[in-house]
Amino acid sequence: MVFNFEQVHNYYERLVFEEVARRAEDYPEFSAEMLGDVACVALNRLPARYVRHDVDLMFYLTEHERRAIEASLNEGVGAAFEFVQERTNRAIR
After folding, report:
1. What percent of the chain has pLDDT over 70?
2. Mean pLDDT over residues 21-50, rounded?
3. So what's the pLDDT on residue 60?
4. Predicted pLDDT at 72
5. DSSP SS3 for 50
6. Torsions phi, psi of 37, nearest 5?
7. Judging by beta carbons within 10 Å of its beta carbon (0-12, 13-18, 19+), is residue 42 exposed, middle or buried?
């Protein structure tokens, strides 16, 4: 039997990457490396939700669950930007 797990991914990855890219313009001093750190910190703050297809998860979520995901995404990414910025500022001093 052949197994193909290429479709399996953490649902939050794409959302976090898109949100970090969207907010990057507000942090012009952040390098690409720092933005990668932001994505890692944000993903580590969020629960892992592994899916094969994003649409599968969205189909079964209630509106309340969708809003909770959006809120946790915004909070996680915001906190990650702050965390990386604080650590960078400390290293510069």
Report:
1. 99
2. 96
3. 84
4. 97
5. strand
6. -65, -40
7. buried
